[in-house]
Amino acid sequence: MLIGPEASIAPVMVGSAAATAAGLWRLERSRRWPPGRRRRVGRWQALSGLAGGLGVAGMALGWPVGIAVWLGLAGVCGFAVSLASAGLATRGTASPSRPVGSGVVPRRPEAARRVGAEAVILAALAGCLASAAVSLAMARWLPVAAVDRAMLGVVLWPLLWAWAIGHLCAEPSWRRGCATMAGIGVAAAAAAAGGLAG
Amino acid sequence: MRQDVLKSLYGLHSWIGVTIGLALYVVCFSGTIALFDRELEPWLNGDARGAVADPSAALGRAVARATAAAATGEEEAGVDLTILLPTPYRRMVVVEGRGAALHIDPWTGEERPAPAEGPNGLLTRLHTDLLLPPPLGRYLVGVLGVLMLVSVLSGFLLHQKPRSELFTLRLRRSQRLFWSDLHRSVGLWGLPFHAVIALTGAVLGFAGVAVMAAALTAFEGDAGAAVAALAGEPPAAAGQPAVTLPLPVLIDRAAAALPGLVPEVVVAHRFGAAGGVVEVFGNRPGALVYYPSVTVDAGTGALIRITDWSGEGLGRRVYAMVTPLHYGSYGGTALKVLYALLGTGLCFVILSGLRVWLSRPGMASERGPMQWLTVTVVHGLPLATAGLVWAHLLLVVSLGGAAPPGMPVFLGLWLAAAGWAWRAGAVPSARGMLGLTGGFLVTMPLLALPALHGAGGWMPWPGDPVLVVPMAVAFLIGAATLRVAVERGPQA
Question: Is the ipTM of this complex over 0.85?
Answer without folding.
Answer: yes
